[in-house]
Each structure stands twice: as C-alpha cells, then as structure tokens.
Design a protein that fits this description.
This protein has 137 residues and is an all-alpha fold. It has six helices and no strands. The chain has two domains: 42 residues; 57 residues, no CATH class.
Length: 137
Amino acid sequence: MSTATNRFRSSSSTLSSQSATAPKKSLNLPSSDRFGVVPNAVLFFCRRIVFAKPKFQLIFWSLVIIGGSILKELQLASESYLPSKRNIFNIYFVKQGWGWSMALLTPFIYLTTMIYTRDPYKLIPRHFIPLLVATGV
C-alpha cells in the first residue's frame, strides 16, 4: 500500500512541478480576432438584455429612459446636427418612412398569413385591414 501511495505522491508532485515551470502560452490570435473582442462583448451583453426575464427588461429600459431624460434635461448631452428636427436626413426619412414600412410589412404579412393559415386567399384581406386603417389615419 505504501508503494501505491508513493507512486501517487510522486506523480502529483511531478504534475505540480511541471505546471509551475511550464511557460505560459499566449493566444496567437489573428488580428481580425483581436478586434472582434469588443463587438462580441457588446453582443454578449445585448443578448443578456434581450433574452432576460420581462421584469429585468422593464427595470432596465425604464432606467435607460429616465437616465436619458435626466441627461437631456441637465443638458449634458451635446447639441449636434443629427438630433435636430431640421436635419435633412430626419426630414427625408420621415417622409419616406411610411413607404418603407409598407414595402416591408406587406410581404411580411402576406408570407406569415400563408405560413400560419395554409389558405391565405380568404384571410389576407382580414390581415391587411389594420394596415389599411393605419395608413388612412
């Protein structure tokens, strides 16, 4: 029994001495992977928020809204051209916004109606009525 114990001790001491003297390996990542760390970290935290419990999301987004309102009220957010109401991009995209919405929503509603009902021709008008009412309003 003492022989087995001595073998175990010698092998464990050998492992510990090897790990203590082994040089540390660095990650030889390509340069593209080095710069991908930040976007991956941002995506990690965004996924944590998106797939979180609804209570957490409610608290998080409420704090974001309140915090942003306080920053704007205290004028800590800088005034620039992009958030201006007279911004050319803002004016153009507001005018074109409903057209883009209709161009994207129409095929989406049509395809989802086809997938979920399997007989879309009878139900398509029923699914497009809210879109037509919103356009009229």
